[in-house]
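step=encode ok
step=design start
structure_in=
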């Protein structure tokens, strides 16, 4: 008999959400392509639920060239117009255009720092910040780190990078461990 795992409650009983929670959320990410993927998806989430975005993730992968920033940076206005007719993604013009703009800015950061990873992880001193939340109500929507990240990204020309979006990105990329202390993932991640 499998032991019952205690996890954060937000995935509810949605299979994709549970898999994302158990295998990805909070796992430290240092791969630039994956960091760009989370940047695009977290921007798409603005005003929507993560469940909505997660259920369209495979469609986003196809639509956004498997999240290769160099390819997305070359998307033309014609390509953007085509994407806005794709029912498999979130068809918000500003969000789609921001993915292209952000891809160009992402490439600039890579040129300057060698990798986007080296740049973005500086906001947490190069390591995961392990919070100790007991309830989901304690989890903030932003932090001083996400404020600093947002400000710097905006100065570099990135779009859809407000502090709340940056904090969601930090959670996804494992820059913060916001699993509840009672969740089975918390000690697993703390040990990394």
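sequence_out=
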């Amino acid at each position: 008999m499998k032991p019952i795992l205690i996890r954060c409650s937000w995935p509810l009983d949605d299979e994709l959400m549970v898999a994302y929670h158990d295998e990805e959320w909070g796992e430290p990410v240092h791969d630039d392509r994956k960091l760009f993927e989370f940047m695009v998806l977290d921007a798409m989430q603005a005003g929507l639920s993560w469940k909505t975005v997660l259920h369209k993730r495979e469609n986003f992968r196809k639509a956004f060239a498997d999240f290769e920033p160099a390819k997305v940076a070359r998307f033309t206005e014609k390509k953007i117009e085509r994407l806005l007719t794709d029912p498999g993604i979130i068809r918000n013009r500003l969000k789609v255009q921001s993915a292209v703009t952000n891809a160009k800015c992402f490439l600039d950061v890579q040129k300057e720092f060698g990798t986007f990873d080296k740049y973005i992880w500086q906001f947490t001193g190069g390591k995961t910040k392990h919070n100790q939340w007991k309830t989901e109500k304690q989890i903030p929507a932003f932090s001083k780190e996400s404020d600093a990240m947002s400000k710097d990204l905006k100065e570099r020309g990135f779009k859809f990078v407000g502090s709340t979006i940056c904090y969601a990105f930090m959670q996804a990329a494992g820059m913060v461990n916001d699993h509840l202390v009672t969740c089975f993932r918390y000690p697993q991640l703390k040990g990394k």
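step=design ok
step=annotate ok -> The mean pLDDT is 96.
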